Every structure is written in structure tokens, then in C-alpha cells.
């Protein structure tokens, strides 16, 4: 293990919800005292006290790292964002690389959708933590899926995504 990484404390590891077959890939301490832990199947955010939050990689839309501030901004598929400020630069880079790989691994195929009113969305075929495939519609909260024209455009994109990988509609 490289010298710049502080070992994941046993007390933090014990609070992780690691499912059968899962393993810790990388961990690093955050500036607010939490730990960010990337396992094969999920992102774990562990506060100094209390329960750890476990998020399958398919819950993450994307993330970006500002190397100057060591802050990763991640966006959840439900539209909220969260900022993780890393205690040390090397830890932020190692974590960010694994984070990116894990999120990308969960994406099988994606298609952009132009919607009425100039709005845009994405339909993404994802792999859940057990390997099962499912689709997500990602966009902002202003997208009205009860609108018939919007629903038709999203349905067509979902068919396109499923066809692209040989899945039935």
C-alpha cells in the first residue's frame, strides 16, 4: 500500500455494509472527518459517528474533481449534488480514479434525448450491483414525464438503448 494512504481504521471498516462478494478498493479520509470508501459494488460515506451511507454505483450520475481544492462534486441520479473535500491530494486522485472507473462500469449504454420545449434528458442502461440491467431517465426536475410528447420521446430513446445492446423492448 502506498505510503500516502492512511489505512482504513477497523472501526470504520466494521460500519461498512459490505455485501457478499464485495471488497474495499480504495478509501480516504475527508476534511470533515468522514471517510469515503469505494468498494466493488458501492460508494460508502462514513461519518465520524452514526451509520454509514451505502450507495450502489448506479445511484451516481457523475462526479468531477477540482484538484486545487481537492473537492469532488458528485451528482446523484435523483438530481441532488454532494461535495466531498479530501484531506490530502494523493488520496483525492486515487479515490477519483476508482470512482470514475466504478461509475463507468455501471453504465452499459446511454442516449441523449431532445424533448419538447428544448429540454434534454438521457436514457441510460445501467448495471446494478448484482449485474442486472435496468434503464434510468436522467434529467432535471422540470421534465414532465406525464406529458404524452415527453413520454413518447423517452420511450423511443429507451427502445433505442435496449436495441443497441440486444435487449428486448
**Helix and strand element order:** HEEEEEEEHEEEH
As a percent range, the share of strand residues is 35-45%
Number of domains: 2
What would you say the CATH architecture of the largest domain is? Roll
Distance between the termini: 46 Å
Rg, Å, rounded = 18 Å
Total of helices: 3
CATH topology of the largest domain: PH-domain like
What percent of the residues sit in helical stretches (DSSP H or I)?
A: 10-25%
Largest beta sheet, briefly? Answer: 4 strands, antiparallel
Q: Calculate the mean pLDDT score and round it.
A: 91
- Main-sheet strand order equals 1-2-3-4
Overall 3D geometry?
A: elongated
Which blocks of ≥5 consecutive residues have pLDDT under 50? Answer: none
Find the structural class using helix and strand composition. alpha+beta
CATH C-level class of the largest domain: Mainly Beta
Number of beta strands: 10
